[in-house]
């Protein structure tokens, strides 16, 4: 039962933490709007696979990583760059996809793996969340099994959220099927978020 508790804590906070607009859920939203459900599901699985080691790193190296603020600052810069590049590609390919990019977009699992690896913001997120939960006395890891139950929960949480986004977007796809402006929304949002993250990094 205690293992299930730490699993559930990881799942709930991962699910809630993945709701704000970000690279992964916007990509899945776009795939859902394009009715590419199978590609979106493979994408979600890949994201969950990468979430596991990133969450583990965040938990395992919590004290070490927070001792070096330059590391977390660079996460912000990497995320800004990934969002800007992905935003440009999303807007560009929505009008005139080239063969190489189109092939990459059609490979949901490969796309999910690459974008997740290049988007390590899960690490500082789980550092902060885990530190908070420990401070409140809601979480403890008396053994490695507890830690891995928690990390497994984080992977399931993000996957469930992305699957939910996929089916919600798919449900409304019929209303936006021929609307080019709506298809541009995920790409434009990524550009705005990337620009905001870059500006925030430069002003710090």
Structure, explained:
The protein is 84% helix and 0% strand. The protein has 204 residues and is mostly helical. The mean pLDDT is 77. The chain is globular, with a radius of gyration of 18 Å. It has one domain.
List the helices and strands and how they pair.
Layout: H1 2-17, H2 23-33, H3 37-60, H4 62-66, H5 69-95, H6 99-106, H7 108-117, H8 122-135, H9 144-176, H10 180-203
Sheet/helix structural class:
mainly alpha
Number of helices: 10
Quickly count the domains: 1
Rg computed from alpha carbons, rounded to a whole number of angstroms: 18 Å
Residue ranges: pLDDT <50 for 5 or more in a row? none
Question: Fraction of residues in helices?
Answer: over 70%
Tell me the distance between the termini: 44 Å
Beta percentage is under 5%
Largest sheet: none
Using DSSP, what is the number of strands?
Answer: 0
Overall mean pLDDT stands at 77
Query: What's the SSE pattern?
Result: HHHHHHHHHH
- Cα shape: globular
Features:
globular; 204 residues; 10 helices; mainly alpha
Please sum up the structure shown:
This protein has 204 residues and is mostly helical. It has helices spanning 2-17, 23-33, 37-60, 62-66, 69-95, 99-106, 108-117, 122-135, 144-176, 180-203.
């Amino acid at each position: 039962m205690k293992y299930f508790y730490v699993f559930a804590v990881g799942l709930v906070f991962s699910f809630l933490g993945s709701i704000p607009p970000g690279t992964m859920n916007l990509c899945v939203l776009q795939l859902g709007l394009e009715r590419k459900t199978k590609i979106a599901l493979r994408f979600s699985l890949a994201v969950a696979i990468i979430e596991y080691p990133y969450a583990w790193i965040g938990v395992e190296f919590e004290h070490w990583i927070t001792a070096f603020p330059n590391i977390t600052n660079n996460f912000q810069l990497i995320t800004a760059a990934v969002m800007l590049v992905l935003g440009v590609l999303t807007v560009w390919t929505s009008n005139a996809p080239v063969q190489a990019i189109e092939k990459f977009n059609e490979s949901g699992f490969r796309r999910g793996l690459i974008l997740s690896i290049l988007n390590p913001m899960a690490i500082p997120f789980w550092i902060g969340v885990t530190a908070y939960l420990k401070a409140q006395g809601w979480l403890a890891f008396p053994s490695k099994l507890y830690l891995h139950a928690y990390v497994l929960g984080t992977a399931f949480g993000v996957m469930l959220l992305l699957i939910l986004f996929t089916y919600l977007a798919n449900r409304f796809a019929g209303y936006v099927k021929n609307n080019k402006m709506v298809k541009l929304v995920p790409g434009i949002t990524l550009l705005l978020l990337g620009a905001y993250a870059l500006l925030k990094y430069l002003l710090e």
